[in-house]
Amino acid sequence: VGRIAFEAGFGLPITGDAMTNVDWAKSILNQCLANGVDEFVICPGARNAAFVEVLTSLKDLPIYSFFEERSAGFFALGRAAATGRPKAVITTSGTAVANLLPPIVEAYYAGFPLVVISADRPQSYRGSGAPQTIIQPGIFSEYAVRLGDLAKGDLLERKIPLNGPSHLNVCFDEPLIDAKSIIWYGSPLELNRDALWCAQDSIDLQSFAALAKSPLILVGGINPWLRDSVLEWLTQQNAPIYAEACSGLRGHPALQNLELQAAEKTLRREFFDAVVRIGTIPTTRFWRDLEVAKIPVLSISELEFPGLSGEVSRVLPLTKKLLEPDRLFFSERLGAVRLADEKDKRRLEELLQAFPHSEPAWVRKLSLQVGIKDRVYLGNSLPIREWDLAATREVCFNECFANRGANGIDGQLSTFLGWASLKQVNWALLGDLTTLYDLSGPWALQQRPLEQFRFVIINNGGGKIFKPMFHESLFENRHAIAFAEWSKMWSLPHIVWDGSNIPDSSGVVEIVPDEEQTEAFRRQW
Ligand SMILES: Cc1ncc(C[n+]2csc(CCOP(=O)(O)OP(=O)(O)O)c2C)c(N)n1
């Protein structure tokens, strides 16, 4: 790390130790801006007081204040996901920093630029057990790029990565606020979104395609800036496509002749001799089963992770150039696969009608309430799977997002409120345990008031994803908690949904599905 020298009041250069904490904090924040950070989330405590002081006088950039670091981290992750730009969370020392591990892990696997700036006590305190002093540098192990452990006057020397999380530790001595910050204006660097990694592998798309007689194209989450290129490329192909909701292409009219409608059913029933995955790691069970299927898999992704442990899986970087329109994939079995899929799709519709109070049927009904321009956040566990299965395909919801990096059920409300749009209508579809996990999530609404949003909670009384997997009910953490009082606490209107039109206003919509119908649906599907 480098020492800095800068001009003080009388034009005298001041270096290192003589500078104030406040000027130092401002220099560090300016360096963040020069790396493209354009929003700051502050979790105030005493040790990061110099950052608080400097941020209160920063005039033209969004500053959000949180009391709870885990929510703050997930909120910032949602902001990074929505904009593709780095966001910084600034914490005080101690367990405050440790609470950021879950969003850091999610950002690592999802490839989002989440920057943690942790204030610390001076390095000489480390290991002494002094109050609120823990070993902060390296606390996120390999999940965050280490930007440095700065002592007074040091500055950031490494570049802030744009495709994953990073951590900067800054040690402040007392007095913590030692100057008054004057009003200032930040100008964050404009960023180019080029490919963020290079393939080491010699595999190319053309030769992979040439060997496939019956390929399947699986489309996971696609970032908005690549969606049109992916769509155009997909329309050139002549092979079955399974598009998950987070691709923003599920139900797209341009894919009408290629897209499978009956979700996993057709995937499991049919034979494919090669799989091309585009975007993030898919949610479908079919993807997990590829571990043992021994068919070649090629991924095209903004992230390097193959998403499978086996040898058969390779990855190419997802760039606009790679997707220059070209018909590469041609399935000899497209017609047969589509026929089987249509049959399964009819069966799906029958079951949705036969069991109108089952979870999938509620999700279908809900999707019919969502407008074409609305944003949809899908909670992990059953909500995202049930949406992929049962949401209407009459409408293509372009803007769908989920935390699929590490598939956690934590921080979902906070991520949603960071990712949501101020002006559009925003929907979050969440499990009940998932909601209980982030009860303080609505805090973010005070910081970033959305014009319209709905938390839709499928309250099935526990973690029902485990019910078909394990006989032991302990897995489910069953409960009889309802969400009316929690909604009241956050001054949010609450309804238990009866299936009629959902009011236009923001609030909480609780769905209580019929367990027997859900089970009957699953058995017969
Ligand atoms: C942070 C975290 N802890 C535990 C899990 C394991 N897990 C996956 S689903 C689930 C239950 C979720 O329950 P709920 O939100 O009610 O959704 P449902 O299964 O009923 O759809 C749990 C505990 C996880 N994914 N993330």
Brief account:
With about 525 residues, the chain is α/β, with parallel strands linked by helices.
Word description of this protein:
The chain is an alpha/beta fold. Strands 5-4-6-7-10-8 form a 6-stranded parallel sheet, with helices on both faces. It has a 6-stranded parallel sheet with strand order 17-16-18-19-21-20. A 5-stranded parallel sheet has the order 12-11-13-14-15, covered by helices on one side. The chain is globular. 46% of the residues are buried. The site of thiamine diphosphate has 17 residues, from helix 12 and helix 14.
List the bound ligands. Answer: thiamine diphosphate
Instruction: Kindly report the average pLDDT value.
Output: 93
Helical residues, percent: 25-40%
How are the strands of the largest sheet arranged?
A: 5-4-6-7-10-8
Q: Strand pairing plus helix content: what structural class?
A: alpha/beta
Sheet of most strands? 6 strands, parallel
Query: Which spans of ≥5 residues are poorly predicted at pLDDT below 50?
Result: 1-13
- The best one-word shape is globular
How many angstroms does the end-to-end distance come to? 60 Å
Query: What is the helix tally?
Result: 17
Strand content: 15-25%
Q: Which oligomerization state do the chains in this entry correspond to?
A: single chain
